[in-house]
Amino acid sequence: MKLLRRKFLHLAAGAVALPALSHVAWAQAYPSRPVRIVVGDAAGGAPDTVARLMGQLLAERLGQPFVIENKPGAGTNIATESVVRASPDGYTLLVVSNSAASSASLYDKLNFNVVSDIAPVAGIARAPLVMVVNPSFPAKTVQEFVAYAKTNPAAINMASAGIGSGPHMAGELFKVLLGIDMVHVPFRGGPPALTAILGGQAHVYFIATSSSIELIRAGKLRPLGVTTAKRWEVLPDVPAIGEFAPDYEASIWFGVGAPKNTPAEIVDKLNKEISAGLADPKIKLRLADLGNTGLSLLPSEFGKLIADETAKWGKVIRAANIKSD
Predict the structure, then answer these.
(1) Domain 33-127+252-320 adopts which CATH fold?
(2) Which of 39, 70, 242, 247 could join 229 via S-S bond, C-beta 3.0 to 4.6 A?
(3) 3-state SS, one letter per residue, for 29-40
(4) Mind listing the pLDDT tens digit for each residue in 166-187?
(5) Of the candidates 254, 321, 316, 40, which has an alpha carbon nearest to the alpha carbon of residue 162?
(6) Parallel, antiparallel, or unpaired: how do β-strands 35-39 and 66-70 relate?
(7) Would the pTM of this model clear 0.85, i.e. be above it?
């Protein structure tokens, strides 16, 4: 009887340990096939550029392709929902950005909650935006721009990468704090917004540094200010908007998320590989060339960033009465 009881307890203990061992073995074998990274922005935009850099890094480190899949639209909600509904096995990942944080308050009837339905994996990069105008625009400084806007109310078209995008939110905060009016013209992603500002169809654009730095250096865009409290070392001669509006600060950020309930072992493995990659001098240099700073965060730290940014921009959206359509 004692022998049978001992054998039963031994088998029961083995059964309890089996799932934990399976998860560990699964994580050790991961990835064994290609992984999708879903991006809620058009190809060529800042999120897409950063995603491709990270996809290449992970492919080199983990030995499987990391394929970028662009699903633009609805303030990144189309992309986010597709990942929320995906199998939580680590083979579908999401580029989470400030746009997702804004959309949480912008859209009333979402079928998901980005804070609770996406498992934070790792940060990738953070960068200021640059307030740029077409070189033909009369204003050469932020002060001149504000003066022009006040004497020509509602005459300025402000391009953005879509309602609730980082450029849109940066512009709305600028309007509120500087007391001016601009007509928001949303485009379907960053590239068409950039085309509009280059062609003179729009007057001002709060643009990602990765999409603008070379055009600024070539004189095709005129920078008026960076969206930070202090000047940015990459463009030291361009003033910070915070110099004129002390409470002004806006930046774009990117990270990796996964469907909730993705095994912690896989999340941790991805976090370690991404963090190791961000420490690589070549990756640091490449991010700097794109106007970004590496954002190495633990999953819990990245989760806090998503929650904090969701709360911050929710206040701006409500104060400015911004609607999704």
Answers:
(1) D-Maltodextrin-Binding Protein; domain 2 (3.40.190)
(2) 242
(3) HCCCCCEEEEEC
(4) 899 999 999 988 999 999 999 8
(5) 40
(6) parallel
(7) no
